[in-house]
Design brief:
The protein is an all-alpha fold. The protein contains 27 helices and no strands. TPR repeats lie at residues 433-466.
Length: 517
Amino acid sequence: RTSRAAPAGEMGLEPLFQAWSYFRRRKFRECADVCSQLLERPPGEQVAGAAAWNLKTRALTEMVYVDEIDMDQEGIAEMILDENAIAQVARPGTSLKLPGTGQGGGPSPAVRPVTQSGRPITGFVRPSTQSGRPSTMEQAIRTPRTALTARPLTSASGGYVRLGTASMITNPDGPFINLSRLNLTKYAQKPKLAKALFEYIFHHENDVKNALDLAALATEHAQFKDWWWKVQIGKCYYRLGLYREAEKQFKSALKQQDMVDTILYLAKVYLRLDQPVTALNLFKQGLERFPGEVTLICGIARIYEEMNNISSAAEYYKDVLKQDNTHVEAIACIGSNHFYSDQPEIALRFYRRLLQMGVYNCQLFNNLGLCCFYAQQYDMTLSSFERALFLAENEEETADVWYNLGHVAVGIGDLNLAYQCFKLTLVNNNDYAEAYNNLAVLEMRKGHTEQARALLQTASSLAPHMYEPHFNIAILSEKVGDLQRSYTAAQKSEEAFPGHVDTQQLIKQLKEHFAML
């Protein structure tokens, strides 16, 4: 006679195995809860207490884990108070800080807009492309509002604040591990526990100093033969701003164990030290040992793009697509490069490819709308922008869509619609310098000189790196006979875009005027 089947509710997994099952399925909250119950048992009843502790530590770390390779937020303090000045006047093509040093034959600022650091706008938002390098503290505090908050980006905003406060969220009773009472020397002698504990301290508690102490003790216990600990010490030094010490650790780790991640960390150090050529050589050496490694090829392409060498960047992005034909960043960057090279039809193919891959966001439909407009596929333009407005997640994205709709309106000759669109742009984002500039041009057409002047001054103070507001102020001042102000503005325009022919002609005319006086 067969036995009766047990009801579904009676079947139970061994708790530690259940916690491990939750961890494998990335249900970290449930995993931590099961481990907590195991650890709350009296000491006599605890089975595999160390295993439960280790598993809970790893689950809490995974809940807030951020890959340090792509997490690179350079705050105001690091930019303005940077003590790692290597060369004040860098040779052309060797620095990321000086805008005009690229030798890459990319499109001019008249065609492709630039960021405040003087580099062309990229096709893909990365931490390094979001905040430019401001020249003054006032400009730093005013402009890079990239964390989508009212505060400018500091190294304490964004990810690090979230990581540091995570311990309060995950444990209402207080932190899971009291770091001040830990005997780090004891844990450093248990390699399996030490690695989990290090990641918990570094990522979850955001306590870099204690993490560094643990890593130093652990690497000593491993007789300096464990490359993993050297990489972790390098990460701690990098976070503390000790870039040369970080470089030594990463180099030492690479000698022991050749790893792609270590190469990427070392390249990050060189880029922070403003040595892009060294980083490029490092990536190229890495490619000899790891041929076809996508992250290394992509790293080379990013550096070329930041150095304004657009043609080389496009070649390397194409190499990325040969290895991984679904790489979103490469497709987006090649698409934007074709768009600014006056090939909107080809750009449209790349953006359509992203749509087929399942990327479905405001930015993509915004770009599709622009490509359709410039490729004269007018039936798709407005529906793309409508979809982009529907998918916009915040006011900055909405402002971008209205600004582009303003451009479309100018293109079809409906200046009243353009005026409304630029106004709506400023309603959504009051710091949109390009919209102020274009509104000023429309006001000028109506003959409202004073309003135009006020709008242009706002635009030039918000975005000193743009040449258009300065040039427009120069033209406006020259028309009303204020030659001195016109000359000052024209010089600023020439500084922002040295190759602008109209600015050069205006300066020449003004100099002739002054010579006659």
